[in-house]
Structure prediction request, 169 residues.
Amino acid sequence: MEIGLALLRLTTGLILAAHGAQKLFGWLGGPGLDGTGQFFETIGFLPGWRHALMAGVAETGGGLLLALGLFTPIGAALICSVMLVAVTVHMKNGFFAQNGGYEYAVVLGVAALTVAFTGPGSLSLDALLGNHLNGTFCGIAALFVGVLGGASSIIQRRRTSAQQAEIAN
Prediction:
């Protein structure tokens, strides 16, 4: 069981950290803050640079916390927050990722929350430091904070002129 939790944490966390590094630093073929910010503005997140920074920090920081098993509910809340926003962005494309849908964002968000509920396991920094941050309360707290964080970004999103034209038709 412990190896399974470590694999789940490491895979989910490092994938998200890498995705965030693409946004923040342009690493791994990513667009960096300027390119991500420009894209975010086209989908209604203004100012784009600020939203790109927030998403990049949430993905990178939350991913690293989850991968390390350090302050696990905080990492899960950050990931839940950014994945909730990703779901709303990709929702217009349907469910499946092959069509640009939101299925992958759901899987990453739920994986992170699963670790908040179960705990990071004994092969984690939380276990090494004696942090017993897991269980129903921590999972619900991570979900609640994640939804609040995601909702605050979603509320700030503005419809672009292209989106308004789609609604009018």
Remarks:
- The first helix runs from residue 2 to 25.
- The chain has a mean pLDDT of 94.
